[in-house]
Amino acid sequence: TITVGVLCIQGAFIEHIHKLTTLSSTDKHRDLTITIVEVREPGQLSDLDGLIIPGGESTTLSVFLRKNEFEQTLKAWISDKQRPGVVWGTCAGLIILADDVVGQKLGGQVTIGGLNIQCTRNMYGRQNKSFESAIKLHHPPLHAAQPTSAPPPFPLADDECHGIFIRAPGILKVNSPDVKVLASVNDDNIVAVQQDHLIATSFHPELTSDFRWHSYFVDQIKQHRYPQY
Ligand code: GLN
């Protein structure tokens, strides 16, 4: 059994839960039971193998993360050196995971950090500039500099996926060779990265019919938390 939490405070959390629920009954992941936890309290984190921080609105998310020491507990859980959980932030979740947020940080965003990237909110403009686009997947992942370790396997089978960008943040810079670039649009806009146990996408795979990103997330949990599988 692996236990996967979805932060259910605000935003597109139902869609992530639906994806994980469907995924747990597919052939690929039938070797394990995926227990899905709707995370609303910091005390729930300690039982998790993985966590999704969904897209939504990072200012609103931050208001709730400031309550009950949620922010501190999440930070401690994410940076646990012994056996950290695997975290995937989509869109607003990416902002929360970024070490450096520049530009419109007007909402006093909580930045848990851990991902050594620089991002900016609403890079492509306001709501009416939201768009859909083909995304190029990189195999193997691109590196900012010389890799310091072997790249993680990236099993999205095809070269492209469909991206839904809703007031999406932009990844302006990758600040460490440990950050792998998994995908981009228009050749140079980075839209998906991974640093060890932290994954972030500026788009919303949970709003498409594609299960590959969720499947990849589950695979990463297996690899990081249960390498014996
Ligand atoms: N622009 C939003 C923010 O700054 C994120 C949008 C999203 O998650 N779809 O929080």
Automatic annotation (TrEMBL):
Enzyme Commission no: 3.5.1.2
**Which residues participate in L-glutamine binding?**
56-58, 121, 166-167
Example of a GO cellular component annotation carried by this entry:
glutaminase complex
Q: Which reaction does it catalyse?
A: L-glutamine + H2O = L-glutamate + NH4(+)
Keywords from the named record: Glutamine amidotransferase, Hydrolase, Lyase, Pyridoxal phosphate
What PROSITE patterns does the database record attribute to this sequence?
GATASE_TYPE_1, PDXT_SNO_1, PDXT_SNO_2
GO MF: glutaminase activity; lyase activity
Q: Name one Pfam family in it.
A: SNO
Does the keyword field hold Lyase? yes
Q: What class of enzyme is it?
A: hydrolase
Q: Does the keyword Hydrolase apply?
A: yes
Q: What positions constitute the catalytic site?
A: 91, 204, 206
Protein family according to the UniProt entry: Belongs to the glutaminase PdxT/SNO family.
The entry's protein name is: glutaminase
Source species, please?
Suberites domuncula
Q: Which lineage?
A: Eukaryota, Metazoa, Porifera, Demospongiae, Heteroscleromorpha
Please state the gene responsible for encoding this protein.
sno
